[in-house]
Amino acid sequence: MMKTRTILLAAAALAGLATTAARAEDATLTVWDWKSGDPVTAPYYEKVKADFEAAHPGVTVNYVMQPHDQYYTLLGTAIAASRGPDLVLVHGGSQAKERVGAFVKLDEAIADIRNDVVGWGEFADAAGAVYAVPLSIQGFMVYYNKDLYTKAGLDPEKAPATWAELEANCAAIKEKAGVACFALGNKEGFGADFFLSALAANGWTDAQQADWAAGTLHWSDAPVKAVVAEWLETWKTGWYSEGANSTLKFMDEYESFMRGENAHTIGLISDVAHWKQFDEFLGADKVGAFPMPAPTPAAEGPVRMPFAGGIGYAVTRFSPHQDLAIALAKSFAAPAAMQIFFESAGAIPASTKVDTSGLSSPSAKVVLALLGCCGASIAHNNMSTAEVEEWHRQSQLLFTGETTVDGAVTRLDEVQAAAKKK
């Protein structure tokens, strides 16, 4: 009897240990982003969640969509408190690179997918260590309304290949079509970011782009000052709709373009404000696309498109489930999920395993062709966040006449120098 009782007690203890072990595997991974609640991207996020939870019984993926305009403030608060999300979505470039101290280094964990995914450099520190898994490739393209080209007496199938051609088109559009040449939203300063990177792609040499990233090419140097001067000159020439400084880039600028109130817009190549969205609203045959030429090209050859790693998922150092979180970050780049991201949202995927052969959009084909031959750095990705914020402010002051080009670049030189000392 005593022996039987001992066996039963031991069995009960083992059962309790098994239950405890099972519960120890239970976890909720909290994922911060600004995209999961968007109907366009929802199928992608649902796919990742379903696949990951099926592969990891007891694990729950909890998406928390944060407001985009407050995202980095909220993230800064979470990092300072060392509590909150297990994974965070970040933009490539300075937004990721200036926060690597709060993220888990991923080099060993991503070794098995590194050759199948591109865009790692935008999520790496100065030594090349990687801190986020890229989801998309992002870049800038000029889109135009072919009906407005026809109305202005222009050939809708002939996109401008030089700055002089673009200037001539803008003059014709203003005179004959009766609309602004470009839609522009610069309330947050994002319009100025897009303009800077679009012109720098063809106005700066590769060496100058490298110097810019290193902080040794300054705002007052001729190549950069020329872009700032052109920003003001295009405003004075009347290229843009009225009220640019009070217009949101996302999505007021792009809705204005889609309503036919402007002939061009500098849009994205992936996710939003891009070929897929414009095609669906205007009709694929009504949308043209071209990379922005520069007033003074830095080199001969085809006009280049600025692009780089777009957005990616990082794992926080304060996550209590780092191994699971790393596995989830990699799942976001899984080919099956990336295929849905491409098809539902028109994202240009970071995964090289996605099949894009069925794409029929004429403007998307222009984008894909440029990805294969003619890329350049995204200049504003290689600015410190302090510089980006000051450029936003100075770009607005230039439009209101509260500063000059010389005044703006002098102030920006000061901010650049201060950021470099940190």
Please, could you describe this protein's structure?
One of its GO terms (cellular component) is periplasmic space. It comes from Prosthecomicrobium pneumaticum. Belongs to the bacterial solute-binding protein 1 family. The protein is an alpha/beta fold and 422 residues long. It has two domains: 25-136 and 310-352, D-Maltodextrin-Binding Protein, domain 2 (3-Layer(aba) Sandwich), CATH 3.40.190; 139-307 and 365-421, Periplasmic binding protein-like II (D-Maltodextrin-Binding Protein, domain 2, 3-Layer(aba) Sandwich), CATH 3.40.190.10. The chain is 46% helix and 13% strand. The protein has helices spanning 2-25, 42-55, 71-81, 94-97, 146-151, 163-177, 190-203, 206-214, 222-236, 249-258, 275-282, 322-331, 335-345, 362-373, 385-400, 405-421; strands at residues 27-33, 59-65, 87-91, 133-134, 137-145, 180-182, 262-268, 287-290, 305-309, 311-315, 375-376. Strands 5, 6, 7, 8, 9 and 11 form a six-stranded mixed sheet that branches. A five-stranded mixed sheet has the order 2-1-3-10-4. Helix 2 (42-55) runs antiparallel to helix 13, helix 9 (222-236) packs across helix 16 and helix 15 packs antiparallel against helix 16 (405-421). The longest helix is centred in the first third of the chain and has 24 residues, at 2-25. It is globular.
